[in-house]
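Suppose you are handed a protein chain with no further information: no name, no annotation, nothing but its sequence. What can you learn? This example shows the usual starting point.
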Amino acid sequence: MKISIFLLKDERRAFVQGLVLSLCVLVMGLALLALSGWFITAAAAAGMIGLGTLFNVFAPSAMVRFLALGRTAARYGERLTTHDATLRMLSNLRIRLLSGVLSSPYRQLERLRASVFLNRVTADIDALDGLALRLLLPGGAGLAVIVLTAGVVGMLVHPSVALGLLVGYGLVPTVIFILGQSYAKGPSRRTEAGMQALRSRIIDLITAREELVAFGQMQNAQTNVGKAAGYQSKGQAAVERGERQTGFWLELIGWAVVSLSLGIGASLAQSGEISPAQAAIGIFAALALSEVVAPVRRALSEIGKMQSAAKRIVPLVDGAAKPALAEPCDLSRASLACEALVARRGPGGHALFSPLSFHAEPGDTVALTGRSGCGKSTVLLIAAGQILPSSGRMSFGGRSPHQMATKVRTGGIAMVSQRHALVAGTVAENLRLVAPAASDAELWEVLEATELAQTVRTKGGLDARLAFRGAGLSGGEARRLVLARALLRRPDLLLLDEPTEGLDAPMAKSVLAGLRQVLPNAIILMAAHRPEEMAFADRVIPLVSTPAQNLR
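A reasonable first move is to predict its three-dimensional structure. Written in structure tokens, the prediction is:
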């Protein structure tokens, strides 16, 4: 229900128009078939009793044409309106969903596998596109038309015929849908899980093919792909079997209602309570209403994956941070202060290091040292506003980075982690991810500062293309390109996690000097482990392991 309200509220006007048009389509279809049946029956009866020349054929035939053309136009308008609204709705959902993911705790984001997450999100969005088109709108319009038709038939024909239509097409299919969900959920979810496993394993097979061949695991990977395909195929077969069974029962109910309408109408016509033409209205209305309950078959086959998708998406959508106002803030002369800072490994865990305190002014370079796992990267993440300290305080410009508006924080703070993030595209496109308006001269400036300009020239310049994840550059070159991208932001606080990893000593010294040349007034805080990084720093602060760590 929550995801339905969210999906529909932004496009409620368009969906209301679509619902009205859907009602028009169904009502016109019913009226067309009922009028046609009455017209044929009445004309035949008039001819049999010799009144054919007096029977007015023009008004009914004109109405038949009007209903046929009107139904086509209403169907076109309904599809155009609802599909357009659905596309906009899903676009808004994607934005809210990704905003919610970005609002997730940093450690949770670290555990995300890009291929699995993107496959999951894509499948969930695809599943929810049918929520409005194949469940809510057809269901709401269908129930309304069934009730309306029953009321009209009750007035024009007889209440007993109307009751049969209401029970046969309103109550029984609803019961089938409610009971059928328990059966449909399992196969639908298995089909979706199998599809996700199949996609992920195929992607892993392609991206890691060299490693799989080198270690002799290609056959095992192909076998796993086949298992996922088989699991998905079994689930799909079960879904299709359930869909066929639902269709069979709906057809059986439809013919039962038609037979009931025929029997009641014939009985009433023989007793003289209604005319044969009136009886025909009830029969053809029963035939036409079979179209109204047809969506139940499709909805049951997809209800399982819709519910699963909604359960995964709702927490992320709810977690989307509301956009904060970017308060006017000048960080160009801001200082960085750390006061008795403590970080723990998980809730209730031991402290990673003894309470940490230091102060840095613009232009200072501070290096954090210590053994692997002592919390150097954690301090950088706290300074970046990605995680909160267990106790103590980290402030930049007098405010906690975590509490800064996103625009202020990302504009004044840049972090380069140990894992570089490059995308398939040109060198210029990778750099301009953080500064779309940057000129070529600015791009060359940061490339020069990171000793990467000559390498880029030999590869074809700024238009040189990189493959998936920046393939085409060595590890050291890729790291320097990420450093250049961070420089392009012109941050007031630059956070570096082992920035010269993979570089020889002369190159490391040159790159560090280039960083400071481009950012003469920025505070640089880095996790350091190499002599070149420590020599570059104005101050070296060792992180002292806590007793709990020393015992390990």
